[in-house]
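[agent] plan:
  1. take the single chain provided in the ticket
  2. run structure prediction with default settings
  3. attach structure tokens to the ticket
  4. add a short note for the reviewer (M.T.)
[agent] executing step 1
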Amino acid sequence: MMALHVVSDAVIVLAYFTILVALFRFVRSRGDDLPSRGLFVLFGAFILLYGFLHGMPVWTAWQPDHWLAGWAKAATAVVSLATAAVLVPTLPKAMALTSPHDLERLQAQLVEKDEILRAGTFAAARFLRTADWKETAPAVLQRLGEATGVNRAYIFSRAYRSDGSGGLVSQAQWCSEGVGPRDEESGLLTLLHHGSGGGPWVSSMLSGEGISGAVDTLPQEERAILEAEGVRSIAVAPIMVDGKWWGVLGFDDCDRGRGWNHEMSALLTAADVLGAAIERHARATRIAQQDRELRETRKLEAVGRLAGGVAHDINNLLSVVLGNVALALEHGVDEDAAALLVPVMAEVGRSRRLIEQLLTFARRQDLQREVLDLSSVVRDMGELLATLVGESVELFIEADGSDTWVDGDRSQIEQVVSNLALNARDAMSGGGRLDVIVTAEPAPSGGWPWAPVDLPDGAWVRLEIGDTGEGIPSELIESIFDPFFTTKAMGLGTGLGLSTVHGVVAQAGGYIVVESKAGVGSTFHVLFPAAEPDAVTTSPPVSPERVAVLRPRPTQKKILLVEDNVAVRTVVERILVRAGHTVRATENPDAAMATWKENDWVADLILTDMVMPGTDVNTFIRRVREHWPGVEVIGMSGHHDPSGARAGLADPREAVDRFLPKPFEPDELVAVVDGRGGATDAEAAE
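[agent] step 2 finished; step 3 output follows
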């Protein structure tokens, strides 16, 4: 029996010392992670002493030593009490140490968060590197969706319907296998536009916080909406552009309900980066649009300068033709010759009108408001319209009604008709039919179905231009009159045609409304306020009798003519001489001043061209006023704006007494010289 005690105590001592060595190695390797190293020192001492106590019976079995055993037990008791005193307060810290299971779970979360951060970095790099965010959005959504382990990721922008209610527009979506995309009319629309004042989702979006969480933790109304769509967890981050709520970046999990605690910050960052990319793209688009507009404006300015120069030269030519034909008729040609020459004068008049249209297109023509018969204007444009629309389009003009008088500028109204006809032609690339109809009628009591609801009562003249083209998409109807808006390919349109039409009609106090149906065609209704026909002034037709004004007048004048164009100078001199005036013709102001001083020859009137190479007409007129203050000065020019050729100078027409635009017929020239026509200086400058 004694041997059993000795062997057992020896084994216990060996076990205690083995535990002590293991504890020592553990403390040495994990000491920094332990809540209290002193506790383990006391615990080691406790084990050492207990091992010693169990070793004492092995010794005392042959050599009793009660004194040593007593002190060993006393030391063990003291160390045991100290160990217990330290262990009790340290126990909560020891229990708080992370378990291996918790470590594995935290490690998985760190890996998932790291993947989300990597996906966010990928999104930022893609959005910032790509010019158009829409091109890279699908790849970014896929990366974010796979990183978060969801079934669906999407980008929706906010929109407003025609009735003013809110809507969503899908910009990009990614879905895992077996899951369909989110519909624009889904429950998300209800949540993001809850009530007129906005619901809790709207408030979270506006505050930049977003919404996230398991669906079963949401309020009953919201939970019912999302559960009906099979969504178990959702995260929606607001996308802010220029400080305004633009849309949402959303994620749907249809397999598990989770809280999104560690993912939401990364998703909010991704939404912010996306908002910055959208803002940058919008800014770049605006800059590019402004650059295109600037190029188009400069192009139009160049066309305007070209048109002004061409008009000047052609008007000089037409003046020569008109003058010489009139002189030929004055000489008394036979009937056959007269029959040939009179149409020449009529065609020159038509050419004059074409030049006015060219100047109108180039924005270089003054407004000349008058009361016009709109039916007559449209009929006169028949040949021009037929040329504009081409042979593949059937043109039908119905403009035979009466009481179609309107107050406006003829060239601008012609521009309205021409632009609408050109737009119709472009919409009928494969051919079709163009109807141009002019009618006069009071607005019906209930109004026309297509007319504005606030159309004033009264008489209106309606210009209707309809085509059988491809029609205008309903979403573009409200934008077609915007400056520089065009659906044509780059280089095929400036986007100014319809905006010009709208401006002309509005300036005349009218309205323009478009009806269109895709695949059927478009009809533009243009309403002009009706004018009183008794305010109309008409010009008599060209006839041989009109040149009778060239015969000598009772009052003859001494006229100093200043004109650099030889042909124009010659025909003007002949017309004035035939009318009984004395004329001295010179080619420039210097020659005119020399002629004036020669032999004390004093003119009653100076007739001068307003634009001559190397000449400052303002200075010339000022010198004339200084030396001969009583002389009358009449200006003439083929330029619409004489000052355009001399940048920085005031309009020379302001310095003359009367102004006569080229080309002019002989009777117009003589009437101005006689004081019976021509615009005054104030009128010319308007």
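[agent] step 4 note for reviewer: Residues 113 and 263 are 7 Å apart (CA to CA).
[agent] ticket updated
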